[in-house]
Amino acid sequence: MSTYCRIILTGLMFLVAPVQAQVFWSVSDEEGNRNWLLGTVHSEEPRLLEFPPELLEALQSSERLALELVPDAGMLDELNRAMHYDSDRLEEVLGSELYTEVVTLMERHYGMGEPAVRRMRPWAVAMTLSIPAPETGLFMDLALSFRASGMGLEVMPLETLDEQLNFLAGIDKPGQIALVRQAVDEFDQMGDMFEALIGAYLDGDLDRLEKLSRAEIDRMDPDVAAHFDQVGLVERNHRMVERALPYLHQGGLIIAVGALHLPGDDGLIELLRAEGFTVEGVY
């Protein structure tokens, strides 16, 4: 998997929270079928890969792990194609000044020379510059997938790549350019932001995690922020719950998705409660 494919996949894969908002929840129905819901952080931070005993016990007692996406060779090829124009168009789209800033950051921090950048689409650039450059590529979601597969669980996706790409491609051209501008302007603060997010996650504080993420969203162009909320969160949350329902009623399912999908009236916690499940915090 190429470095920038891994970055974009990770970005594809990162609202008022309830009291004692935690990141790992048990989900059970009236028949006693038990499942689990885990909010993740799309990061390779080593502290995130030290899975708590409660999560390991849940894996041992489960049959399936459901992620937003499960990478395979075909999907990664499709992602690579979707990230790029057919020709060198990025400078034309961004303008020379912003394009030069992008190339400088990509070369200096991600090891991507101009030939690798000039055909990228703006949303792919924005997503790349919004997360730290990967070192190992073993992100939390991927590590969890490997652990589950090794324990004999079926690993399944809740979405298709097309559905996630349509969310990003659905942002209009000015909105995508605005995302690139924001990513460039805030690049120097990204490390501190991620450290704050990871700290909130390790504290099991979904409320604080949501507030930090919400602050980032609120700095977006208003139209882009509205699109992110409605298409990137609300619509995706409903779709994921709908697809998980048959397996939830069988029991033995762990849903592991970005933590921002959990809180809020249209978050997975409340959507599952509306379907009649008892959802209780574990940590």
Number of domains: 1
> Strand order across the biggest sheet?
4-3-5-2-1-6
Overall average residue pLDDT: 92
Number of strands: 6
SSE pattern: HEEHEHHHHHHEHHHHHEHE
Tell me the overall shape. Answer: globular
Oligomer: single chain
From the alpha carbons, calculate the radius of gyration and give it in angstroms: 19 Å
Strand content bin: 5-15%
| Biggest pleated sheet | 6 strands, mixed
User: Total number of helical segments?
Assistant: 14
Low-confidence stretches: 13-20
Structural class: alpha/beta
Q: What percent of residues adopt helix (DSSP H or I)?
A: 40-55%
N- to C-terminal distance: 33 Å
Structural summary, described in words:
There is one protein chain. The chain is α/β, with parallel strands linked by helices and 283 residues long. The chain has one domain. 54% of the residues lie in helices and 11% in strands. It is built from 14 helices and six strands. It has helices at 3-12, 53-60, 73-83, 90-94, 96-110, 114-117, 122-129, 140-150, 161-169, 173-185, 190-202, 206-218, 222-248, 268-274, and strands spanning 24-28, 34-40, 64-67, 154-157, 253-258, 278-281. It has a six-stranded mixed β-sheet, sandwiched between helices. The longest helix has 27 residues, at 222-248. The two termini are 33 Å apart. Mean pLDDT is 92; it is low at 13-20.
